[in-house]
Amino acid sequence: MLEDFSRRTFAKLAGLALGIAAAPAKADETPAQPAAGRLASGSFPSGFIWGTATSAYQIEGAVNEDGRGRSIWDTFSHQQGHIADGTNADRANDHYHRYKEDVGLIRELGVKAYRFSIAWPRVFPEGAGAPNPKGLDFYSHLVDELLANGIEPYATLYHWDLPQALQDRVGGWQSTETSKAFADYAAYVAERLTDRVKTIFTINEVGRFVNFGYGLGIDAPGLKLPQKQLNQVRHNVALAHGLSVQAVRAHGHAGTKVGPAENIAACLPAIDTPENVRAAEIATRELNAGFLNVILEGKYTDHFLAYAGANAPTFTEDELKIIGSRNDFIGLNIYAPQFYVVAAEHAPGFSVLPFPSSFPHMSSEWLRIGPETAYWVPRLAAKIWDVETIYISENGTSSSDEIRPDGKIYDLDRIMYLRNYLTQLQRAVAEGAPVRGYFLWSLMDNFEWIFGLEKRFGIYHVDFETLVRRPKLSASFYRNVIARNAIDV
Ligand code: NOJ
């Protein structure tokens, strides 16, 4: 499963450019340290946006209600052997019926923002063609409820629940028909929600669902495509991103902000030297060449194309222009450090170090602990792509979350994780990294994809029998951070 695949497999699947030409690292290209000390110790800037996040399929349930079409995750989760604990999200948190209660939970935290996703198959049950107005009504009501409670809505258009009809009809993301259908869906949503939703995330974690869903076959739709086709899928998704950015601008209210929410391949200097920092910059571009870099630079890197060779995606200059449409921000999902790098004499100027088997992780084995990820990733991203606004669109952890005899959950490991990551994020912000907000994953325990309901990421516990929600200790921790707009240092 997730833990088993090696970084090299990941790099291969992602079409990443390991071990190919680039200028050797040069110390004199290292960025100057951003000005430090503008913030009081541990403080975040005033107006920093504290939020929390969820996604549609992971919490909503109600999969057969109000005209919703099937998604590839409905199909996949019902096929035997795909989900570790044999569960599916037919009911999940039943958020569809309990959204008002859940908005109450958000309000209790004191957060200012909530990132949720819209289920494409609720809005277009067939993926394209006739919309289902009742589908969008649900989100419209949710948005009203959030605003009535003083919470700013941030909507994601695609968090992996592709309409099954598109998978069946055109092969899903294997076809640019899906990219175009996504743009139509984006336009439809933008027209109807951006009077109230000011920020739209286009597509969540391309790096995950393309590789795992179309390459390794362990996420929906469970395909194991050869490299050339996999690269084409990723290209079609990048095209969908660009088309949807344009659609939101063309059909949304003026001033609507739009950008991606990506699990950037997190490249960190193993040891903080100018040479290694430069190497981490090179690695960040090259190891994100297939999505984040091409949408932000409007072209594939030379290394990516050389490495892919005959497996490079087929594309036109016009497509690259669309893919490179300007983003208002970048959303970065930050969990584990993925690649510790050092400078290398050989091209492309960095080497990736192997992880020792004793490297610590959280209760999810893939979630290695590297708090400095929250420092280096925004700092390097801001430098490389010259972005003015970064959101940490997800950060959080699973925990074993035992319920004690007093009925409480003392998730001290989650608090440890959050405290350390937030401390490093504060360091980045204090040094000038343009991070404007942070969305903790997740508001409440939910359906954790191939791990089912057993891996719990919430700061509210959910009993999946009774559906009762209750705060864990981490909810108090987060409430305290938000109230003080600061982290203990
Ligand atoms: C990122 C994904 O966007 C989200 O759906 C998932 O639950 C978390 N990572 C935790 O694995």
Commentary on this structure:
The protein is α/β, with parallel strands linked by helices and 489 residues long. It has a single domain, classed as TIM Barrel (Alpha-Beta Barrel), CATH 3.20.20.80. The chain is 39% helix and 13% strand. The chain has helices at 7-13, 56-59, 72-78, 95-109, 120-123, 133-148, 164-170, 176-193, 206-215, 227-251, 274-286, 292-297, 302-308, 317-323, 373-385, 412-430, 473-484, and strands at 49-53, 113-117, 152-158, 199-204, 257-262, 267-269, 330-333, 339-343, 350-352, 390-395, 435-441, 460-462, 469-471. Strands 1-2-3-4-5-7-10-11 form an eight-stranded parallel barrel, surrounded by five helices. A three-stranded mixed sheet has the order 6-8-9. A two-stranded antiparallel ribbon has the order 12-13. Strand 8 (339-343) and strand 9 (350-352) form a beta hairpin. Helix 10 packs across helix 14. The longest helix has 25 residues, at 227-251. Residues 1-10 and 17-36 have low confidence and may be disordered. The protein binds 1-deoxynojirimycin. Residues 55, 58, 204-205, 333, 394, 441, 448, 457 line the site of 1-deoxynojirimycin (NOJ).
Q: How are the SSEs placed, and which strands pair?
A:
Layout: H1 7-13, E1 49-53, H2 56-59, H3 72-78, H4 95-109, E2 113-117, H5 120-123, H6 133-148, E3 152-158, H7 164-170, H8 176-193, E4 199-204, H9 206-215, H10 227-251, E5 257-262, E6 267-269, H11 274-286, H12 292-297, H13 302-308, H14 317-323, E7 330-333, E8 339-343, E9 350-352, H15 373-385, E10 390-395, H16 412-430, E11 435-441, E12 460-462, E13 469-471, H17 473-484
Parallel strand pairs: 1-2, 1-11, 2-3, 3-4, 4-5, 5-7, 6-8, 7-10, 10-11
Antiparallel strand pairs: 8-9, 12-13
Bound molecules: 1-deoxynojirimycin.
